[in-house]
Write a structure and sequence with these properties.
three-stranded antiparallel sheet, alpha+beta, globular, about 220 residues
Length: about 220
Amino acid sequence: MDGANAHGGRMKLLGAVLLAASLLGTAARGEQSPWPDDPSRTCFFQMLSGVDGEFCRGDLEIIYPELGDVGCAYIPKCHQYRRRISREWGSPRVRYPQAEKSKKYVLVLVDPDAPSRANPRNRFWRHWLVTDIPGADLRTGNVKGLVLTDYVRPTPPPRSGYHRYQLRLYEQPAHEAIALSPEERVSLGAWAMESFVEQFQLGSPVASTQFLTKYYED
């Protein structure tokens, strides 16, 4: 089984286990379902395929509450997950088990589909940028480093279709001080990510993943 298939299998199994545990726990406590709008609806996680699936490399995990690792998947609409990822949940945990403890890393989260995948005139929209992340912390899923851009929730505009939220992890060159220019700090949109990567000699990502979601009422 290759890495993508193994990852997909883990995601489906995790989703099923989480849903079953939640429903069983609610029944045992006699509490109201946390999803009163449709408490019996089963949630199915659709994995990415084709070019979108090929973007996911290196077993990089992006972990949100209840959903678990959403890497290489669509965010399902059931149980208000799309609304919650856009309106409620804060920054996810990011885990990279292969991180080297002695090294530091740079994490970049962007939306290349702003304002839409058909017309991405504001590519790339910067949602999160953290440097100087110790490898030891990445191995456990704790992102601790120098935050250059605070986490911004995924908020696709109405009727703009699915947006890709791409997480890239780079190995940070030793003794390299990384910073955004004054112009870059002014705006999150239309960020020249490739120029940033080239300027600080980050090279290719050591791992990457993405998830797709759209406006929660569409």
